[in-house]
Amino acid sequence: MRVAIAGAGAVGRSIAAELIDGGHQVMLIERESTQFEPETVEQADWVLGDACEVSTLEESGIERCDVVIAATGDDKVNVVVSLLAKTEFAVRRVVARVNNPSNEWLFTDAWGVDVAVSTPRMLAAMVEEAVSVGDLVRLMTFRQGQANLVELTLPEETPLAGRPVSAIALPRDAALVTILRGERVIVPQPEDPLEAGDELLFVASAEVEPDVRKALGY
């Protein structure tokens, strides 16, 4: 994929390095000359300019990008970049960083955002996930709450131990996408047996999360 990242601070550069390691083409757009440091991520294309300006986006060729990531430390900038990328340049996928959780309500498809990533929310979810066994933990929200990535770790006394994946009677609008077992990442098949300690990752709409919990016996 070709990915454009608005904001070449520590967060933007880290994302760029990860994507480049994954074999993607990356362009970093930075308006502050003090943070314009191409030598820090040499394999990325660098653009010095304001990503909130249509002219900068045009000159950078952002319409050729598959994904735009608004990763600056300013929520107002991230919202504007998202809106321009989606409405003016028809970028297929727009991901935006939410710095202040109180601004999260702004990061919707009305402003061009497909996925909003709130670091404080994710950190809180990671803490919950680390200490919660036998309870459903919401890790990430997609499409402004239309679907969530949720996790449940099967406790030692789970009645599902030894039973196949097909024994989980999931509701409509919910899917088991991955089982994490030790260092293994398992793409679940209907006949795969479940084990105590398995971390089950589901994508589900918020409305059916209670039904997912019930299907797992909680």
UniProtKB/TrEMBL annotation:
Pfam families membership: TrkA_C, TrkA_N
The reply on keyword Lipoprotein is no
Tell me where in this chain the RCK N-terminal domain is found.
1-117
KW NAD (keyword) present: yes
Identify the residues that the record assigns to the RCK C-terminal domain, covering every copy: 137-218
Assigned keywords, A-Z: Ion transport, NAD, Potassium, Potassium transport, Transport
Q: Which InterPro entries match?
A: K_uptake_TrkA, NAD(P)-bd_dom_sf, RCK_C, RCK_C_sf, RCK_N, Trk_Ktr_HKT_K-transport
What is the official name of this protein in its record?
Trk system potassium uptake protein TrkA
Q: Which organism does this record belong to?
A: Amycolatopsis acididurans
Highest classification ranks of the organism = Bacteria, Bacillati, Actinomycetota, Actinomycetes, Pseudonocardiales
